[in-house]
Design goal:
Chains A, B: One of its GO terms (molecular function) is glycosyltransferase activity. 2 copies of one chain form a homodimer. Chain A is of the alpha/beta class and about 450 residues long. Helices cover about 35% and strands about 20% of the residues of chain A.
Chain lengths: ~450, ~450
């Protein structure tokens, strides 16, 4: 998939105004003060997981890199910024020439993350780094929230496929990003056609009650659907009476009906009854797809029921109670002068709460000798050398402004599957708990207190 | 604001694939069965408010009408749909010619709604109405969720301004829609620049900790900000020590500092201390803006503190616990044949839960003689005639495919302000409760049971 086709008919010519006002006024002040070109390192990270969650899933990397590529200030944007006095003329001139020319490292897409994991490290001038804050956070906070919820759902579904059907319950373009994130986290397909076109996520559909109600009776409706879509279609059987509808669907297809969909009622009970009915009618190959306010707990609760697939909507696109990750983007180091060779000094907010750890980070995941993850090791300076079984988590994404990574979703999806499989088994628990592995901090002098550890 | 500039540099050439797969396969089956052209009425409504909420706010009307205008299947979309066998050639041919040619009525933007309120009534053929389901629901479910939360926040803030700052915590284009929705519900401004450019929402900014940390010390940072942005700027004073920072800001501006921003700590206590300090330094006109995980309850709790404005982020863009409204889009009536003059027959799903009320609705808000809203009156057939003080809630939005309504945000914002002011005082309560007025149903024969009333 080329980048140009990735934007497709909903191409966004510039992403540069998906930005908070204050980034450009800080830029304006720093340009005037002569501090804008100080070598700076920004870090994108989360202080904690949502309460009770065991792990998080990094998502949005590919979308963020595309947004970076489209991040330039065109004439209309600059005119708006000048007319509203957000920027002055020297700042507008600087923005007109802006193309990001720095380096970015990050956790690859689909990877697992924990509290404090440095998901992105942006190494550039202050000016170049500060104006990316909002667009990077928007993409990471949304996409990772969806992928983190989706991963719990696919974990609970096991071998049974999950289909993303939540477009109608979230903003229309967030829906496209949500379908992408769900696919990375193991969903098999989406109902969202734009996600199919833009990202090649497989699309699936069943039928709505309106289609049945349009016709004189269920037989007429099912006959019309089967005539157009074949016997392998999925019939929605709960408009009037489920038993009658299942019988009708089986009769019209000579027992070769692809699937039935149950969208209301007690799904475990209904699925058991419908399975028995289908089998008694000889439709032993007909599958049962359930939908209706499913989340990871309901999916787990249905594991004993004869269900062949889950359609998940609202809970998926709203992050199952946690629609945002709470990632922040902080300056962690900067030079004292604008000499490009000046040494970096660690910086961090000091007062009261919301502290962060200054300094440019490395990040490793440490595994035991059975290959099970046991520690997220984050530090400042060079990573420790030794015979530990560690994986470096930060990979180069952008170098000198050039985007290095362009992968299709299958790669991120496979990375997620493997990375989740490395976690301790407690990661699969749906009950509330702590992150399944600890985060530890190191500096040149040894271990540091974990500033994000819960206060006991 | 013209429609063309409304799409601006993030123009979406087509919204037609912001659609669920099944809508096009239902269309395909209905075209083949000869039922696609039956005169049909679809209704968009919510069965209930989020638990505990007293009222909801209709939002997304203007965006939905623009999405309708951009809803056409271009060559690339059709190629995708044919290549993936979502549609066959006759369906693709039908889609290639598609322009919505029906009528749409709806609650105007900014109006209050209650359980069962028919927010949109789409009168067209089945084919034309069915394919709009997802894009209409996506826009209404998102924008109304944000506006409903925002309205509670501005109600609690009273005369103090609320500024929307949540872009970083939601998907990057959902952020633009959220800023628009917040403005309609009474927010004064947004940090989101694209919302400024696209919708003319006023934009505001303060400063980030990174700007302070970039500089050698706070004095240097504040001096740079004041030099570029003037003394009327807002200084962020909690990077190191709030007291020192406030003193520095006042000294550098000779007491003429515009505002200080507090972004952490105990905001009520801090605001009181900072107000006393500012006053003791003679900076009696300097305002105090607070931010940091504010929601409607925190805003209410700060009503006694000397605060001059609230910056609201995460809670706003995530709908303060309810990121989606749960609106559905249901076929409520259709003809038995494709004769355009054939009479409409009410239809509704019958089995188990998720019932709806068939039939094409009218909707009135009834007021007592003091002008206070007392009933949402919904019915089938002609509205009752009498000397009641009623307002018709459904206004024509689209007629014969032509979009009739194009209003700027100020009109919707003013409508919201007035409509909220008509509600009983209980609407202002932050405690959980029932909708502040009841919904009642009428048909030609008199009153109906309310199918959405909570089961006692």
């Amino acid at each position: 998939m080329s980048l140009s086709s990735a934007w497709g008919p909903t191409r966004v010519p510039t992403t540069a105004l998906l930005t908070d006002h204050y980034e450009l006024t800080m830029l304006r002040a720093a340009l005037q003060a002569g501090t804008a070109n100080r070598h700076s390192v920004f870090e994108l990270f989360g202080r904690r997981l949502p309460p009770g969650r065991r792990y998080g899933v990094v998502c949005g990397v590919g979308r963020a890199l595309r947004a970076l590529r489209a991040f330039h200030f065109d004439e209309e944007s600059l005119r708006f910024l000048l007319d509203t006095d957000v920027v002055d003329q020297p700042t507008a001139d600087w923005l007109a020439d802006f193309r990001f020319s720095g380096d970015i490292w990050g956790y690859p897409e689909g990877e697992i993350y924990f509290p404090g994991s440095p998901l992105l490290v942006v190494d550039s001038t202050f000016a170049e780094g500060v104006i990316l804050e909002t667009v990077l956070l928007s993409i990471y906070n949304h996409d990772s929230a969806i992928a983190s919820a989706a991963s719990r759902m696919t974990a609970m579904a096991g071998d049974r496929p999950c289909i993303e059907m939540g477009s109608r319950r979230t903003q229309e373009l967030a829906a496209v990003a949500a379908a992408r994130a769900a696919y990375i986290a193991g969903f098999e397909a989406t109902s969202n056609l734009e996600a199919g076109r833009r990202y090649h996520v497989p699309t699936r559909g069943t039928s709505a009650h309106s289609f049945t109600l349009l016709h004189g009776d269920e037989t007429e409706a099912f006959r019309a659907q089967i005539a157009a879509l074949g016997t392998d279609t999925t019939l929605l059987v709960d408009t009037y009476d489920v038993t009658n509808a299942v019988r009708t669907g089986v009769e019209l297809t000579d027992g070769k009906l692809g699937a039935v969909r149950l969208d209301s009622g007690d799904l475990a009970l209904l699925a058991t009854q419908v399975r028995a009915l289908l089998d008694s009618l000889g439709a032993t190959q007909t599958k049962i797809i359930v939908t209706s306010d499913l989340d990871e707990w309901n999916i787990a609760a249905l594991s004993g029921a004869p269900v062949d697939g889950y359609g998940v909507g609202t809970a998926l696109v709203t992050g199952s109670g946690h629609p945002t990750c709470g990632f922040v983007y902080k300056l962690v180091a900067r030079a004292d002068t604008d000499d490009p060779g000046a040494p970096l000094v660690s910086v961090a907010k000091k007062s009261t709460d919301k502290v962060s750890v200054g300094g440019r980070k490395f990040a490793l995941r440490r595994f035991n000798d059975r290959g099970v993850a046991e520690l997220e090791l984050i530090g400042i300076g060079a990573p420790p050398v030794g015979d530990h079984n560690d994986r470096e988590l930060l990979v180069p994404l952008v170098q000198g402004g050039e985007i290095l990574v362009e992968e299709d979703l299958a790669a991120a999806r496979e990375r997620h599957r493997r990375s989740r499989a490395e976690l301790p088994l407690e990661a699969w628990k749906m009950s509330r708990g702590e992150p399944v592995i600890d985060t530890a901090y190191l500096d040149e002098h040894g271990s540091l207190d974990n500033p994000y550890a819960p206060k006991l």
